[in-house]
Amino acid sequence: MRILIVGLNYAPELTGVGKYTAEMAEALATEGHDVRVVCAPPYYPQWRIAEGFSAWRYRFEQRSGVSVMRVPLWVPAKPSGVLRLLHLASFSLTSLPVLAAQVAWRADVVMSIAPSLMSAPAAWLVARLSGAKSWLHIQDYEVDAAFDLGMIKGQLTRRIALAIERRLLTRFDMVSSLSEKMVERAVLKGVDPLKTACLPNWVDTRSIVPLAHARHYRRLLGLDKGPAPQTVVLYSGNMGSKQGLEILAEAAAQLVRRPDISFVFCGNGPLRAKLEARCAGLANCSFIPLQPARQLNQLLNLADIHVLPQRGGAADLVMPSKLVGMLASGRAIVAMACAGTELSDVVAPRGVVIPPEDVDALVQAIEALASDPARRAALGAAGREYAERRLSSVSVLGGLNLKLAELCGQGAEAVHGGGAASPANGLSHEKLAAAPLEPTQVD
To answer: In this structure, how many other beta carbons lie within 10 angstroms of the beta carbon of residue 189?
Structure first.
């Protein structure tokens, strides 16, 4: 099949949507499909264009079997509500000439990745003009999140934005999202249930595996120098407004009295400087930047306890992509989630769930797990089992491959780009094993 993917973020970004879009495109290319991607130059989560790329030039490259077409992008130094909208609009506008040129290519499927929803109308139009099927994959309900988290305000503005979103969503042949609750939200917005699919973020369970120790990072951060073994509480990922990271700073301040508990913050983002300022003077806090992809397994295994903060307003608007790596690492997890959300449903049987933005509950959960290594091990093992069973890259991307063939009305031979019929899980184990996904940090 010919597959055109339109998405703001792409590799070599180390976190979030770009990581998953790139892995999806490369896996489909490995299966013999002809894959093209229209995207921006890498800029996330630092919010500046990466070295070696230009903000103002069009660029075409081959990357791991995928034809990548990068378009100019305006990136604000300090993203706010209005500036974010202008940022997204710049990608929508500069991508138009490249998308128009793709009509003649006549793709079988045009897939738009949200965020950014602003580029979805053009992707849909290209699909219609070229006779392709249209697929919208929602990583984040950005309209709901923007208003619920206070980034954009005004009831009239909200009604107009939701009406436009609803009209757009209902035009696509397929709408997918990361969890069943997020798919249900699409249905509530008017999407035909028969045109929906759950496509969760995945993890390469061959690259992310439980380790007995993570000595590299413990030595690097001086965590082995004290008289007592350190229980490490790790947050790794984007440092933005959705995460509610100030709660972790408050918890760290309360736990200064516990010399056996250390907090490690790994990542970049617009709120990192503010978080560092709040933790200034706390001897139990360490900060490190995003780490190379080859170090991700060591980094995740540094944790004795992973923490997943979340603002209450986020609810089922997002399913944090960092969760899959946490589960695969076989370490205990403390997640902030409201009862009844999918995040709570996933974590609760194999971790500790506490109310969002509840510092006291977070402190109590960390102290309880720090004092109970056996429980940490049991929860970590349960998380690892779930990751292997439900979130492995082979099974998730295999399901996507089959769904693409079904959407196009093609038989099993289409699953491998016109080759032999595939195994039941879609992507062949042999091909994925031969070209394993490169692990990177997640959002």
So the answer is: 18
What CATH number is associated with residue 265? 3.40.50.2000
179 with 328, same domain?
no
For residues 292-318, one letter each, b for 16 or more C-beta atoms within 10 angstroms of the residue's C-beta and e for the rest, the string is: ebebbbbbbbbbbbbbbbbbbbbbbbb
Mean pLDDT of the chain: 88
- Does 126 share its domain with 274? no
pLDDT tens for 147-176 read 776 667 778 888 888 899 999 999 999 999
Count helices and strands in the chain by DSSP H and E runs = 17, 14
pLDDT score of 26 = 96
* Counted domains in the chain: 2
Same domain for 232 and 170, yes or no, is no
In the block, tokens 């109970």 appear at: 372
Both structure tokens of 101: 């040129």
* Residues whose CB is less than 8 angstroms from the CB of residue 313 and which lie 6 or more positions away in sequence, other chains included: 145, 148, 149, 150
Q: What is the pLDDT of residues 204-232, one digit of tens each?
A: 999 999 998 778 898 889 887 766 678 99
Residue 42, domain member (yes or no)? yes
The CA distances from residue 331 to 227, 304, 443, in Å, are 23, 6, 18
DSSP of 349-360 = GGSEEE-TT-HH
pTM recorded for the entire structure: 0.83
Q: Could you tell me the residue range of the domain that residue 267 belongs to? A: 215-389
Q: What is the DSSP string of 231-281?
A: EEEEEES--STTS-THHHHHHHHHGGG-TTEEEEEE---TTHHHHHHHHTT
On whether both 355 and 420 belong to a single domain, the answer is no
**Domain assignment of residue 442, yes or no:** no
pLDDT at 432: 38
